[in-house]
Amino acid sequence: MIKIEKRNDVPMTLYFFTPFIAIILTILGGGIIFYILGFNPIEALKFYFITPISNLYGLSELLLKATPLCLIAIGLSFCFKSNNWNIGAEGQLTFGAIVGGGVALLFYNQEGFYILPLVILAGAIGGMIFALIPAILKTYFNTNEILVSLMLVYVSKLLLDYLVVGPWSNPEGFNFPETRQFSNSSRMPLLFEGLRIHAGIFLALAAVMLSWFILYKTYLGFQIKVSGLSLKTAKYAGFKGKTMILVVFMISGACAGLAGVGEITGPIGQLHRMISPDYGFTAIIVAFLGRLNPFGIIFASLVVALTYLGAETAQIFLQIPKYTGQVFQGMILFFLLASDYLLFFKVKILNLKKNELRH
Amino acid sequence: MYKNFFRYLISAIFLLGFSVNSNADFKVGFVYVGPTGDHGWTFQHHEGRNAVEAAGIKTTFVESVPEGADAERVIRQLAQSGHDLIFTTSFGYMDPTNKVAKDFPNVKFEHATGYKREHSNVSTYSARFYEGRTLLGHIAGKMTKTNTIGYIASFPIPEVIRGINAMTLAAQKVNPNIKTKIVWVFTWYDPGKEAEAAQALIDQGADVIMQHTDSTAPVQTAEKAGVWSFGQASDMQRFAPKSILTSIIDDWAPYYVERAIAARDGTWNQQDTWHGLKEGMVAMGPYNSAMGADLVKEVEQLQKDLASGKVHSFTGPIYDQKGNILVAEGKVADDGMLAGMSVYVKGVEGDIPK
Prior knowledge:
The structure holds two protein chains of two kinds. By secondary structure, chain A is mainly alpha-helical. Chain A has helices spanning 12-36, 41-49, 56-81, 89-106, 115-141, 145-165, 200-217, 219-229, 231-236, 241-268, 279-289, 294-318, 324-344, 354-358, and strands at 2-6, 345-349. In chain A, 70% of the residues lie in helices and 3% in strands. Chain A has a two-stranded antiparallel ribbon with strand order 1-2. Helix content of chain B is 40%, strand content 19%. Chain A binds chain B through residues 57, 61, 64, 161, 165-166, 174-177, 194, 196, 263, 266-269, 272-277, 308-309, 312-313, 315-317, 319, 321-323, and chain B through 29, 60-70, 72-74, 76-78, 80-81, 91-92, 95, 103, 115, 155-158, 186, 340, 342, 352-354.
């Protein structure tokens, strides 16, 4: 007989320590997978986790990849902390990119210092508006926000498809599904010549600081945390639940929209159909790996970004299939959830006597 | 295709005997947009890579590289890690390829289906797939009972429109009553959408289905519905043995081997390649015996004539949908016109999405 009991008094230090356990277990699990696939596990792991960041370019790429993940995850932490399950960050990213990209396209043949701020602002507002849809439907019509936000991802992607194929496609582009290139004034300034890391990283860092301030130093943050712990308590305390839901979704959407705008004004430079390799979904792993804590999220976004880069390097140098990157991301989440479970619950194996079994 | 493969294997063994260690560090990199097991576009590029490998040249590939921000990093990493020649095998890699090429003047780049060669170390290459479409049109025109051909199209770019037009013109030649119905799916690879599109066309009376997308879903749908179909990019016969009449096969192997050897021996230079049936970059799969011996013979002759240049896919008179003349009688369309083709010919139904 196996019996599962809830543990009392789980130390918080252990709670913040389990992500590291999950990462170590993932690395061990990855080593075993590489071994089974016939690769030298030490060498494979080296190509996976060390080679990609062994030079300046690699570090820049790591930060470039981590920036959207961090931004989105910060936004999601507001939702998740308050028990609002926004699964549609990918859609909010896409819609933010559409709105921001639309503004950038308006100025495609103009230069000016005011253009980039306008584009960024438009992106944030776009993401915000798109996140408001599931929020309003949830607060006023009692719909399930998981379903609505997820379905809206496909709406936004199809809208983007329509725009880049049709009305916004580059008139000189032979009907290829992409817009014009943005003008230089709509592009994020590069931080270093020759590297792709751009000013978007400051947006992510600002989001981290701001979210820490809101979550831990303001009344809103307190409301969010209490609602997350117990909705009944929040109601009893007289918190205005509806406003809070709208606000967390708006923050979350704005962050995702910023991530989208960062991608199109940063490394991409135009709108096309492939603006995000599902950052919005991967950021869910990042948010939980970072324990919904702003500084934890920075760390988690770097780890998850590294799994993307490592998968590429491992394929280039060892021809390990690139999909191992997704396997690694899956393993991280699995081990994290598993260690959380074991942290909060005890598994007891009971020895039953023979006569007890007869009953 | 296997014939080719063995040809290269033999030449590879021959070459190995003479040039052992002449350039041991020479490496070729490939960037793929899909998985190597897609049985279509990427699968064929991977076959090409295998041929290069068989020619005794070291190769590396990275599969499923999204056409967004990641492409530049992958291409750059290949350039940085000692690859001397890099094939980027999807249109969306055009700008990243040119960008990386600027920073690595000693590395050679080959971009498939693009038109930008901004630096002297970038070549572009593509195949005259439309020649294969001419053969499909001829077969379809003869095989259809409903006089309706269903065409699943990806994006309204010149390459796709060229295929639709070439097919329609050839079908009209053998069957003046032919109509071409088109469904745009706006994707290169989405088995679900492609299957739905095929079913929609069948429901509208099409009894021959063809597609300019990469998955095997359309031929499988056709097989189930009992209508004719054609394989695209690779020989898809085993996915729909009854339904498939033939396949257009992209055979990149000869080109890849030639260019890799040229780059290794220092004779590589920039070019814009557009090869067809003549050079073997476009090949045809086995013809279905259901076509009947006479039709097979006809098509094989047409294939020879297209390859020798005796017949051109776009020979005048060609009219657009409104009846305006596009190519005058006795003339053939030049490559410039083909490269920018953006209107349907007469007999195609509907409008090009804008």
